[in-house]
Amino acid sequence: MSNSTDSWSRFDRRERLLRFFGLLAGLVILVAAWRAMEVNYGYAVTAPRELADLFSRMYPPNVGYSRKIVGPLLETINISILGTALAIVMAIPVAFLGASNTTPNKPAYLLGKFIISFTRSVNVIIWALIFVVIFGPGALAGVLAISIRSIGFTAKLIAEAIEEIDRGSVEAVTAAGASPVDVLIYSIVPQIKPAFISVATLRWDINVRASTIIGFVGAGGIGVPLQTEINYFNWEAVLTILISILGLVLISEGISAYLRKKVM
């Protein structure tokens, strides 16, 4: 009988070497990426002083200016609501195409996945720039930018919910002689309803935030006066706008969390 005792190891020698060189390669890439950015450390050193100087110019906020931003704030809310609603309308058929158990065929499935990936891959600011060029500055460009950007996110999560439905319910309704539309209404929709409401409210919450910045490129909302006041170095008004944006985001977060809690 051998007196030697083999110690147990989760990884063998080859796996340990692969993990070591993988970690080393990751560190090399990280260092190379950092060096490629050519960070100006002189600015980094003076950043605290510049930040303190900026805050001293911002404070106190211009309370009287708040009357001028009520309209842009309401426009921001309208953009987020209309953009989300339009996105949901367009995302529902895309979700059924992109779900493996409801898509009619392979080409339709690939089309659904392409739409989901494409709309998610382009930032909302880019979409806003595109629609500002097409339709001109204003809330319409903002609504379209928000809606197109939201299709991929909404359709992806709804498609995943569709793929997780109980097939037994679908088979039971089908066996009773129901048409495909009846199967959709009485079997699939009730099962994905909680996920649908949760996704819709979460996306609206995200779109409220997005709607506050698309004005920087002329797509309406509170971002338009924010960009204007920054250009004029009216820092007290800028702080007033930032506080209003923070309040709007906190309110939307609370509403979204409440609605998601109700359907969970």
From TrEMBL:
Its subcellular locations are: Cell membrane
Q: Does the keyword Membrane apply?
A: yes
An annotated GO cellular component of this protein is: plasma membrane
Q: Which Pfam families match?
A: BPD_transp_1
User: Where does this protein chiefly localize?
Assistant: membrane
Tell me what topology the record assigns in the membrane.
Multi-pass membrane protein
GO MF, one term, reads: ABC-type phosphonate transporter activity
> What InterPro entries has UniProt attached to this entry?
MetI-like, MetI-like_sf, PhnE/PtxC
Q: Which residues form the ABC transmembrane type-1 domain?
A: 73-256
* Sequence intervals crossing the membrane: 20-37, 77-100, 121-148, 237-259
Q: Which UniProt keywords apply?
A: Cell membrane, Membrane, Transmembrane, Transmembrane helix, Transport
Quote the SUPFAM superfamilies the UniProt record gives.
MetI-like (SSF161098)
Question: In which family does this protein belong, per the annotation?
Answer: Belongs to the binding-protein-dependent transport system permease family.
NCBIfam families on file: PhnE
State the protein's name. Phosphonates ABC transporter permease protein
Source species, please?
Haloarcula marismortui ATCC 33799
